[in-house]
Amino acid sequence: MPSRQPDISPPSVSDGHHRFQTLPLILAGSLTLTGVLLILFTILLYQKLYRNRTAPSDLISKSPQHYQCRRFSYSQLRRATNSFSESTQLGHGGFGYVYKADFPTGGDSLAVKVMDSSAGSLQGEREFHNELSLASHLIGSPRVVSLLGFSSDRRGRRLILVYELMANRSLQDALLDRKCEELMDWNKRFEIATDIAKGIEFLHHCCDPIIIHGDIKPSNILLDSDFKAKIGDFGLARVKSEDLVSGNDTRILIEEEDKRKDVVEDNGSILEETESVITVFEEGNVVNLSPENCGISVVTETAASPGTTPGLSPENCAMSVLTVEAGVSPGPRSIPSPETCAISVLTAEAGASPGAASELSPGSSKLKVGSKRDWWWKQDNNGGSRGGIESGSVKDYVMEWIGSEIKKERPDNNKEWINNGDDSSSVSKKKKKDKKRKPREWWKEEFCEELTRKKRKKRKKKKRGISSISSIESWFHKDDDPSSVHDHNLNPTKRKKRNSIDWWVDGLSGDLKSVMGKKNSQDSGLWCDVNVQKSGGVSSTPSMRGTVCYIAPECGGGGVLSEKCDVYSFGVLLLVLVSGRRPLQVTASPMSEFERANLISWAKQLACNGKLLELVDKSIHSLEKDQAVLCITIALLCLQRSPVKRPTMKEIVQMLSGASEPPHLPFEFSPSPPMGFPFKSRKKAR
Ligand SMILES: Nc1ncnc2c1ncn2[C@@H]1O[C@H](COP(=O)(O)OP(=O)(O)OP(=O)(O)O)[C@@H](O)[C@H]1O
């Protein structure tokens, strides 16, 4: 069979012609494909850019799951806030001003917090990064103010946080400053209490990892147009983790996509706005406290030695607790100066009372005071963990400040202010002699002289059988020593003991009256609440963790932050909400008001006397008495010194919602003999 030969004939002319025909087709095809791809790419790019340009409205309408923290350009925010003009200011806190930003594109308004990052101070920057790092954990709760975006330049000079706008600003502002009519309705207040409790419950029980807010207070509770409460300001918040306990830091990295490119600062560049945030937890998040931002809480000095009463001198005069609530600083991060601080109450201890002094030796007295009563002090005094502030400097600052405040209040022409006794002339001579005395020295001396004089008078009266014990004494017990509250009631003989406020009140009473007489604002504090600016941002200057009056005893000064710290702060907040006043406040009324100055003490005292409802704000209408008692009882449970005894936020929510039985007061606050409270069981009878 003949084999088949391969066709090795040369290509014909028609084949070459065919190839020439297909080449243009291939070229045309690939060109078309490239074109289509280019068009697709352009469309995608356009969409992406357009979405970023219209970020504000998009962000708001998005469900929390789709939420992503965006980067805004500085110029965009500047335009939206009318160059950060005063007219757009919503308020200010310790670390910057908050502005209302109107975005023309979406017609939406947002709140823009410009962190003060002035040279040499890191606190604002730390808060900024802390908030950003936590934002991703806070997705999904309608009870947390949403952080929608941020703006920062490479050098970290312009740090801005963008939040959803809360139309009624902070609870502090609405309740204590503006005294909004809506909040005079009990149901609204109870609703707010429940909202806040649920918000904290979300942080403690629904977030993974758990978040501890660390600064629960009225200025960090924001109210929307319907007065629904949300929790804001996570600048001091922490995630609960192993790292937290070991004190490691949390750090945030902002991935800058445009690093390669020359993004001109402040040009509203689109690329600048498309950067995303990546959070990385690396080191401990220890917020160092600088003198500028520390909240002064306590001043302690040694107790007097026995037998010093008659000759009580400034040196042996013991001031055990002095609590100062700082008001709004005039600008971001300014030092809480005398002008900007609101002293609300001062409690002090003199080892000078005959009874008390005789029990204490000079050496032991300090120990005794320290071990039992100076937990406030410890907040400020816990070693060097306060960013290098020495306790002494805080003390000195407070002393000087009080001195200057008193000096300010004293009329120049009234030389009798303190020295209305026999020794007035000698004191004034002494003052002339000693012109170089520091303010804190002169006021201490003058008070102690006045004190000694009054004590002498009282002793004379006592001898004559006239009881001179003021009712104030029974009111001003220490917060950290609840048992003493009870003791006062159980053991009437103990009432005769001079307590810690004595020397201060004795020394000041007359002068306080005159000072207070000048101020009529129901809301104003003892001396310088008048100086608190009505900006809507009245708040306390934050201390390292939390704020004076609101921070739990165990959390201050570098103590381990736990959920129970938030529970404690919630307790104070609840009392503020029910009573409609600040935790420390002396109003413009006579001395009868002074005994109520310390809200926590007062609440405990009322509980012991079975008169809890006296705490309720008189301006409230439609009061549900059992709910009010429930709130105060929960607050007192939260304020127990032992964190273990405080309820969890879950339990609190259950109590507030009626899902669990109403709680009983802690034993030490229950009236003697223990009696039930007028709760109606919320559980339906079966
Ligand atoms: N999202 C917001 N919407 C509306 N107003 C706001 C918003 N955030 C803050 N504000 C207002 O700005 C004020 C200042 O808030 P900011 O969080 O800066 O400080 P603060 O919590 O009052 O004080 P501190 O810095 O001492 O904690 C608030 O009291 C509130 O009135």
Automatic annotation (TrEMBL):
Residue stretches spanning the membrane: 20-46
Keyword field contains Disulfide bond: no
Catalyzed reaction equations: L-seryl-[protein] + ATP = O-phospho-L-seryl-[protein] + ADP + H(+); L-threonyl-[protein] + ATP = O-phospho-L-threonyl-[protein] + ADP + H(+)
Comp. bias intervals (Basic residues): 428-439
One Gene Ontology MF term: protein serine/threonine kinase activity
Family matches, as SUPFAM superfamilies: Protein kinase-like (PK-like)
Enzyme class name: transferase
Keywords recorded for this protein, A-Z: ATP-binding, Kinase, Membrane, Nucleotide-binding, Serine/threonine-protein kinase, Transferase, Transmembrane, Transmembrane helix
Domain of life where this protein originates: Eukaryota
Binding site for ATP: 113
Identification of the protein by name: non-specific serine/threonine protein kinase
Species this protein is from: Cardamine amara subsp. amara
